[in-house]
Amino acid sequence: MKLFRIPLWLWLVFLVAGVGYAFHPFALKQMMKIEQNRLLAQPQPTLSTMPQRLDFTKQMADLTYLASEALAGRGTGQPGGAKAQQWLVTEFAQIGLAAAGTAGYLQPYQPTTGKAQLMKGAANVLGRIEGTDPTLPMLVLTAHYDHLGVHQGQIYFGADDNASGVAALLALARYFKQHPPRHTLLFAALDNEETGMWGARMLFEQELLKPAQIKLNINMDMLSQNTDKQLIAVGSYHYPQLEKPLQQLQQQSSVRLLLGYDRPAWLVGTHQDWTFSSDHREFHNRAVPFVYFGVPDHAHYHQPSDTVDNMDPEFYREVSETLLDAVLLFDAS
């Protein structure tokens, strides 16, 4: 009787696989460190402060209302979410944006899967400023207005996440209403980001937008917490044409703008990848270029303590002016 023998080549496969498995966690950590060093090697800001072009007093008033007890965390399907929705309609009209929804400024929809399918009354709020050159594709500026609402008797106020992005969206709309852009700008205050990015998804599923019409999505989500005065710009790894204007933006900002958080695990190990972490995901899934601006996660993220009192107003002002420069750069290119 012959004994079963394992070929030498198969022993070598087992050996290599075993060594690889043993060193895998170490390799991931090393790749993460390399990526962190790459980020920190990017240029430091050269400006001490940003110019004042946006109406920041009004912007802060908007943020304060959005993150108030009156709106109770803006949960989709909750009374606070409905109030936020109608307030945004009024603000869009007062700014003078052209209605761009399926029902005036609103785009009502009903999610069909997951926890979101139980939520009634979801709607995006959409407005346009027509560009001076109608042959150019549009820029779509997005910020989700929903947050966690009231949960187990506590209000999750969502000042940074994402009243900060919505107030910046409104400030930019007021600026460009007075300073007409070359590209048409769509201002989209989106619902249901916290429960599966349904608002962004429905822009395409209801065919309000077609990918071929869009030059770029600029998504704003969490802008007001000073985490070592860093602002992350996500997207240039996937769309290298964005790198040059974003590098120019680095030189025009007083905040530390870092290009990254968009590389896959096989390249950066355990470092965070935000490619699919907010509404820009639905644009990327359809091969529409995006840049996502946001701050690193902080202690108040998805906590009741995410309030106006815990934000940094001057940092938020500088970030908002940086976003204005970003839109101006992409509109000019």
Automatic annotation (TrEMBL):
One GO molecular-function entry: metalloexopeptidase activity
Keywords: Hydrolase
A Pfam family matched in the record: Peptidase_M28
Gene Ontology biological process: proteolysis
Domain Peptidase M28 as annotated: residue spans: 124-326
Name this polypeptide is given: M20/M25/M40 family metallo-hydrolase
